[in-house]
Every structure is written in C-alpha cells, then in structure tokens.
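About this split. The held-out portion is used to measure sequence recovery: a designer receives only the structure tokens and must propose an amino acid at every position. Recovery is the fraction of positions where the proposal matches the reference. Here is one held-out target exactly as it appears in the evaluation file.
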C-alpha cells in the first residue's frame, strides 16, 4: 500500500477589520430614502445656508462689473485648453489608482475606475474633509467586492504620493522662478520648506526601517500596500 502524503497546511484566510466591515455593511444596506434624508435634512440645509450667507456678506465688496470685464478679456481658447488638460488627468489618476490596487492584491482596470474617480471628485466639491475619497472607496467596494479597508488604505497611500509630488513641484517651481537669488523676505519660506523636506525624508526612512516593529499597529491591507509585510501566497 502506498503511503499517503500528509496534507499541506493551508494558508490562513485573511480576516478584515470587523469595525470597518460592519460600517461597510451598514452603508450597503442604506436605501435611497435614507440617502435623500441625509442629503436634504435640516442639518444639511443649515450647513448649506450658512456658507451661502457668508458668501452673500463678503460678495457685497466685490466689483462685479470689473469681474465681468476680467472674464470677458480672457482667452476662450486658453480656458478650453485648461479644461481639456485638467480633465485629461483623470484617466492618469485612474491608472495610478488601479496600480495601487494591484499592489494591494486587487486587479481592477483603470477604465472601470474613471467614473468612480469623477464621482468622488464631485463629492469632494460638495462636502468638507475630503469625504469624496471615502465615498469612492465605498463605491469600489460595492462595485468590485474589494474590502473597504483595502480601498481606504490605497487612498491613504495615494495622498502620501500627492504630498511628495506637491513638495517636489514647489521646490522645482521655486528654483525656476527665483533661480539662485534668495530674497530676504523668502528666507522663512525656504527654511520652512527645508524643515518639512527633512521631516518627510526622516519619516519615510523611519517607516521602512521600523516597519516590521510597527506593522502590528496597522490594518493588514495597509501593511501589504506599504510592503511592511509580504503579500500572502494565493
């Protein structure tokens, strides 16, 4: 009789954060009536009327005729080109988002993410605190079945990339605008930028150096995206 080989140990299944999954489940069972109440309730009405009142107060000091003349002097072709360039970045943003999702173990095409990204951008224009990012994370979970903890972790990584890119653009733009001439009034700006750059560099080095020690304080999806732990085998 042939000797049976011992069964291979199975890889442990990934368990999502219970709190995050519970919030996602509650959000998934929200019906259209509840959403309508949330958008058009008394609290939302007050939060909309107060900014409108502030705009009305400050708008009294605006020279609307001068504003209209300034808009009239603008070049329509340049305005149209600016709009085309701005909205042409959304496919690139979607491709970057898809790449980050693949790093987290989710395979989603960038074409499927463009509309979700535009919806999140629209929500960001209406509500404070960048809640559109959380909304697009929820849309990805609902449409593609990706866990909310994974999508939120990707958005956090995306915002960190934004911070690094914006800082690099500030440094490059400052050099192009002023060259090697250091104006006395800009010493504070230069010093602040240098300190922030140093802190960012120290933080990145510390994260990668101390990753294995601090990994237990982060959700599993954030750890995999940040390469703090290896991705489990399929």
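Reference sequence for scoring:
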């Amino acid at each position: 009789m042939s000797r049976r080989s011992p069964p291979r140990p199975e890889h442990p299944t990934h368990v999502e954060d219970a709190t995050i999954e519970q919030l996602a489940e509650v959000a998934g069972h929200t019906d259209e009536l509840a959403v309508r109440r949330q958008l058009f309730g008394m609290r939302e009405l007050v939060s909309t009327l107060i900014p409108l009142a502030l705009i009305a107060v400050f708008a009294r000091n605006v020279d609307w005729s001068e504003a209209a003349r300034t808009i009239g002097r603008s070049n329509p072709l340049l305005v149209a080109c600016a709009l085309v360039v701005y909205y042409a970045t959304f496919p690139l943003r979607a491709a970057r988002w898809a790449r980050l999702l693949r790093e987290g173990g989710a395979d989603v095409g960038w074409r499927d993410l463009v509309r979700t990204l535009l919806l999140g951008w629209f929500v960001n224009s209406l509500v404070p605190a960048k809640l559109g990012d959380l909304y697009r994370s929820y849309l990805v979970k609902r449409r593609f079945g990706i866990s909310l903890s994974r999508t939120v972790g990707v958005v956090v990584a995306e915002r960190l990339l934004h911070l690094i890119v914006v800082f690099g653009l500030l440094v490059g733009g400052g050099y192009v605008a002023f060259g090697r001439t250091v104006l006395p009034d800009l010493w504070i700006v230069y010093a602040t930028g240098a300190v922030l750059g140093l802190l960012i560099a120290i933080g990145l080095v510390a994260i990668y150096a101390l990753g294995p020690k601090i990994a237990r304080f982060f959700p599993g999806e954030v750890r995999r995206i940040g390469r703090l732990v290896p991705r489990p085998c399929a």
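Annotator remark: Confidence is low (pLDDT under 50) at residues 228-234.
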